[in-house]
Amino acid sequence: MVLQRWWDIATADPNEIIHLRRVCCRHCFGKDHQYQWRDEKEYKQAVKAATILAREQNKDPVIPSDVGGYGYDRLLRPHPKCPYCRGEGHEEVHIEDTRDLGSKAMLLYDGIKQTVNGIEIKMQDQGKALENVARHLGMFTDKVELNGNLNVNNPFAGLTTEELKKLIDSG
After folding, report:
1. How far does CA 64 lie from the centroid of its chain?
2. Best CA proximity match to 85, nearest among 43, 132, 32, 23
3. What's the CA gap between 25 and 91, in Å, rounded?
4. Under DSSP, is residue 61 helix (H, G, I), strand (E, B) or coil?
5. How many Å apart are CA 109 and CA 85, to the nearest integer?
6. For residue range 33-71, what is the model confidence (pLDDT) as tens digits?
7. If 0-12 CB within 10 Å is exposed, 13-18 middle and 19+ buried, where does residue 23 land?
8. Contacts of 76 (CB under 8 A, 6+ apart)
């Protein structure tokens, strides 16, 4: 069971816990690559915000356009011919809900640590787990045992001391 646990940790996929993904920009799938809104509600909120800001600054409002249309889905892969992001989109770090981790990923996961820079995902050491498996399977030679039992083709094996002396004297 211990060997199986080490093996599961060593072979777990860290991407099941956390991964970096490229997501599309607001222009990738807008009509003619114009800015795209999620829905009409989001667009109306942006118009309202622009109007309030202009009123506070005593200026004419700069009303955003909705010619790019609606239906923005940030999880789509970037459009390769987008003139704004040049098909690169932008990076997004995704941390999986730990309640949904598979059994191997759950063994790999070692908790979350809150830091001043955000959160740190802690994981078991996969290299150490693999080393433990290899060591258990005898793939490393940490010590070499020597004994006097040599299996050599010795024509004098089995002769008594007296027989050996006679051979030497007759020699």
Report:
1. 39
2. 23
3. 10
4. coil
5. 34
6. 999 999 999 999 999 999 999 999 999 999 999 999 999
7. middle
8. 23, 24, 28, 29
